[in-house]
Structure formats: structure tokens, C-alpha cells
Amino acid sequence: MNVFDRRAVRLHRDRAAADFENFDFLLQEVAERLLDRLDDLTYQFPLALDLGCHTGELGKAIKGRGGVETLIQCDLSERMTAQTPGLKVVADEEFLPFGGNKFDLVMSCLSLHWVNDLPGAFLQIRQALKEDGLFLGAMLGGDSLFELRNSLARAEMDQEGGVSPRFSPLARVQDVGNLLQRAGFALPVVDTDVITVSYGDPFKLLKDLRGMGESNAVHQRRKTFTRRNTLMAAVEQYMTDHAGPDGRVPATFDVLFIAAWTPSANQQKPMVRGSGEIDLGDFLNSQDT
Question: Under CATH, which architecture does the 6-142+171-194+253-288 domain have?
Fold first, then answer.
């Protein structure tokens, strides 16, 4: 699978790096929610990796949480890592330069949705972790920006008679859970948070996406600018379909949160199928009475 133009992903991040602090609000919010999940654990993770670090939002927020003593941060964009304090390296999520069994914890915040080979990336993450190591990740899921997607699709169909690939395909909860198991992780848990951002108009959303480095990087994307009449029709459609009484419009970000462990002999194991002492049918019947 080669859906995404990784060179375009890097160039978009390079372009966004200098002014990224003015557009990192979503990344900061998701980073805090990801670290909240780390706070729920009693484990200690002395050596950690931040995969796709952008300008170090996770590193700035972690402050020793989870017992992290050393954090290695890496990103595809050299300009992003240049803005990142602490230990950092330029590295591609698809080709990790780390040996096996190195890290107690690997984290990734809003970066893996641009990876072509997600099963391969999960496998490399699992191999980089020590036994009983933890992978914590957050990535955009399938319903993200559905308002913008639908509005652009309808406008392009009306104005140009067809729809071009403007948005990347995004994974869903079940997909990610299955891929984690295929990669050899134990006890995978995937849940979703919906974050809704309010905008005065869709143009501000488009500016924010560019400032985040989240512009279209699909290989089959159109290489020319969007026609003005198509763009204006999409904005009008967005306002018609989604504007609230105050005239503002929502932008929905569907964020998938991942927690999975590398296998270890001392981990809790699921019970053998059929070993339960209570019949499910009897239990359900008892609830009806």
C-alpha cells in the first residue's frame, strides 16, 4: 500500500514548523488526554520514545509522568525537530532506526494516520519495545472532519461533475484493534474521543489545517489549486448544513486512543473459552425478572 506521499507529508510539516506554536492547540489537547491514560498506570517507564513528535508537545507536557527519565523524540521533519527541546532525531515512522527491545514506552500523538504501512509500523513499534513494554498512541479516526469532507465532495460534484481524493483514508476502532493483534501486541485497547472545535467560518478551519501541517498528502490528490467557484460552493454548503444559531460551524476530530503491551509471561491472560461458571443465558434471563 502506498496511499500517502511521504515527501509531501514532510514538506507540509517543514512549512508549518516555524509558526507551529500558533496552530498546535489540537495536538496539545490530545497530548494531555494521552498522558492522562499514562497517569492511570502504576508502572514506571524510564526510557521512552515519542514517535512523530512534531515540536515536542508530548515532551513538554510529560514532566516525569509515568516515571519517564529519558525521552527520545523523533519526527519525519527536520524543521519540526529543530523546534523541539531535549533529545531528538529525524526519523521516519515507517523505517525506525532503533534496535529491538530498547524502550519501556513508545508514544505517538497524531502522526500515525499519515503512515502507509500501519501494520508494519505497529510491528516495528512492538519490536522496539522491551518485554512488557507499553505502546500509547493517538491518531485521527474515520469520522474526522466529516463536515468538511461532505461539503467539499458535494461542491465538487455540483461544480465539476466528479470528486477527487482530497482526504486521506482513516482507520476505525475495529481496524486498529485487529492490526495491533496481528503485530503481536497483547491486551490491546482502542477507544475514541470526539473533539469538536468551533469556527466562525470554514476558511479559518482550512487555515488551521495548513498551519498544523495536515494538508492533503494523498498520492492521487489533484496537483492544482481548487477552483474558486468550487471552494466558495463548499464553504456555502458547510455553512448551510452545519452552522448553529450563532452562525459558527463545528469541525469534528475523531481521535482513536491506543494502549497495547508487548507480551510477557506475568501478564494477565484471558480465561479459556467455556471455562465460565455462569451461563450467559441464565444471567440474562435473571435480569428480566
Answer: 3-Layer(aba) Sandwich (3.40)
